Amino acid sequence: MNDYILTYRKLVMPDDLNHAKTLFGGRLLQWADEAAVMYAMCQIGSKSIVTLKMSEVLFKNPAKSGDVLEFWTRKQKIGNSSLVVDCVVVRKIVQSPQENPTPPKPQEDGQFKNPQDIILSCDFSFVHVDESGRPKPHMLAKKS
């Protein structure tokens, strides 16, 4: 639907690790949900958004203490009150500074060029809601 944009960065700290000394999956999912909802709020233009569901979550590679993670998001599907956001988490190579971050680019087969740097990939479905928590149409459907 469109290109990924850099939404969020996190530094993995020792308190974020599990018993195997890699990033705890639950912490990564929390950060991914935060990145995706921030993207959705900016796209829809409202803070009144709730997470409806996540797709299958694929933990592709571990992250360790000191890793810098980049959270890349893009619109996948627009409904009347919903927005599906694709989220890809990439390990930033800090030894190669960049003026402009490079978004992940899936190849024709849907795989990424540097799979060893992909930490997570999943989709989040969000719903724009009114004050009572009921679905409320957003303006994105009219823009597309």
Please characterize this protein's 3D structure.
This protein has 144 residues and is an alpha+beta fold. It has one domain (5-143): Thiol Ester Dehydrase, Chain A (Roll). It contains two helices and six strands, in the order βαβββββα. It has helices spanning 25-44, 140-143; strands at residues 5-11, 49-54, 58-59, 68-78, 82-92, 118-128. Strands 1, 2, 3, 4, 5 and 6 form a six-stranded antiparallel beta sheet that branches. The longest helix has 20 residues, at 25-44.
Topology:
Elements: E1 5-11, H1 25-44, E2 49-54, E3 58-59, E4 68-78, E5 82-92, E6 118-128, H2 140-143
Antiparallel strand pairs: 1-4, 2-6, 3-6, 4-5, 5-6
Brief summary of the model shown:
The chain is of the alpha+beta class and 144 residues long.
Task: For the structure shown, list the relevant keywords.
single chain; alpha+beta; 6 strands; Thiol Ester Dehydrase, Chain A; 17% helix; 144 residues
CATH topology: Thiol Ester Dehydrase, Chain A
**Major sheet size, sense and barrel closure:** 6 strands, antiparallel
The assigned structural class equals alpha+beta
**Rg result:** 16 Å
DSSP strand count:
6
- The tally of domains stands at 1
Mean pLDDT across all residues, rounded?
90
